[in-house]
Design goal:
Elements lengths: L15 E3 L1 H7 L2 E6 L9 H14 L8 E5 L3 H13 L2 E7 L4 H9 L3 E5 L10 H11 L3 E3 L7 H17 L6 E4 L5 H13 L4 E7 L4 H7 L29 E5 L1 H12 L7 H17 L4 E6 L13 H6 L11
Parallel strand pairs: 2-10, 3-4, 3-6, 4-5, 7-8, 7-10, 8-9
Antiparallel strand pairs: 1-2
Helix pairs in contact: 1-10, 2-3, 2-6, 6-7, 9-10
Bound molecules: 4'-deoxy-4'-aminopyridoxal-5'-phosphate.
InterPro entries: Cys_Synth/Cystath_Beta-Synth, P-phosphate_BS, TrpB-like_PALP, TrpB-like_PALP_sf
GO biological process, one term: cysteine biosynthetic process from serine
Cofactor: pyridoxal 5'-phosphate
């Protein structure tokens, strides 16, 4: 048992766990990287720390400065924690469609929260553009810019992929996850390919995102929709640029929920992007064959979605079949 000498070093070095249900269903060995065990309970703590430390090293972030970001919520939570630990203020811009729990968490952490209506990226009121403007107008502030700041994927090249390689003792056949910024898929993909170029990197795309068609047919085209928070991208962000994607799957919310339910039966409470990742990992396991060793990301805690994914009325209102145990 190690003792950490400072709180920020609690970010990363997450456990990897073999998942019985997904392994059985695919005939492969499926492992989940427990990113919900980061201090901010999501995969985005890693990117938040690297983005802030990169800005400090470049002299862009001065003592007492402000970090501004547009986020589905998890990056904001990571930035607020890192900001608190280092003495920076955080201003977080979020679409108002995201879960109540993420908003309440950001307020609890002391971040200034700016809610904007959900809008397409081409709209100047989109949360990303709004956050850039606020950063420009705020003295002594940086714009974290997680989508196009490649310090994000560097966190996964230097951190997540190295950890996966060590934990798997150098035997990884495939890796898959969904993309929000693309930092995780691109960073882990690039890192694992550096170790062994035979590792298959698969993108698992939710409905409503454009990346499946881009990697399959060379065309950014979205079909359908998804209520999964934090994933689903319509463009090639700087973080996605050059991502070594070998194959791709499209997964519906209902398919993702099947795996959220099965993980609940294994004692894990996760968010929907994790369920979608597991569905992708099962598909990749079937593609690579029996006994293949597949890794995916358990992105965040389900406790962040008590009012949505784990709420019967909300699920019904979105046309999704509630989990059988939800009775409210
Ligand atoms: N799942 C959740 C719940 C997230 O918040 C995010 C971050 N947007 C992701 C998955 C995807 O991570 P990335 O931004 O690295 O693509």
């Amino acid at each position: 048992m190690t003792v950490h000498s400072d709180t920020l070093s609690l970010i990363g070095n997450t456990p990897l766990v073999r998942l019985a249900g997904p392994s059985k269903a695919s005939g492969a060995e499926i492992y989940g990287k427990c990113e919900f065990m980061n201090p901010g309970a999501s995969v985005k703590d890693r990117a938040a720390l690297y983005i802030v430390e990169d800005a400090e090293e470049k002299g862009q972030l001065q003592p007492g400065g402000t970090i501004v970001e547009g986020t589905a919520g998890n990056t904001g939570i990571g930035l607020a924690l890192v900001g608190n630990a280092k003495g920076y203020k955080t201003i977080i811009v979020m679409p108002e469609t995201q879960s109540r729990e993420k908003m309440d968490t950001l307020r609890a952490l002391g971040a200034e929260l700016v809610l904007v209506p959900a809008a397409p990226f081409s709209n100047p009121g989109h949360f990303v553009h709004t956050s850039r403007r606020i950063a420009e107008e705020t003295p002594n502030a940086i714009w974290a810019n997680q989508f196009d700041n490649t310090a994000n994927r560097k966190a996964h090249i230097l951190g997540t992929s190295e950890e996966i390689w060590a934990q798997m003792e150098g035997r990884v056949d495939g890796f898959t996850c969904a993309a929000g910024t693309g930092g995780t898929i691109a960073g882990v993909g690039l890192g694992l390919k550096q170790k062994d170029e035979r590792v298959t990197i698969a993108l698992t795309d939710p409905h409503g995102a454009a990346l499946y068609n881009y990697y399959a047919h060379g065309e950014l085209k979205a079909e359908g929709s998804s209520v999964a928070e934090g994933i689903g991208q319509g463009r090639i962000t700087a973080n996605l640029d050059g991502a070594p994607i070998d194959t791709q799957y499209r997964i519906s919310d209902q398919e993702g929920m099947v795996w959220v339910e099965k993980l609940m039966g294994e004692g894990l409470c996760v968010g929907l992007s994790t369920g979608i990742n597991i569905a992708g990992a099962v598909a990749l396991g079937k593609q690579l064959g029996p006994g293949s060793r597949i890794v995916t990301i358990l992105c965040d805690t389900g406790l962040r979605y008590l009012s949505t994914l784990y709420n019967r009325e909300w699920l019904v209102s979105k046309g999704l079949t509630p989990f059988p145990w939800l009775s409210n």
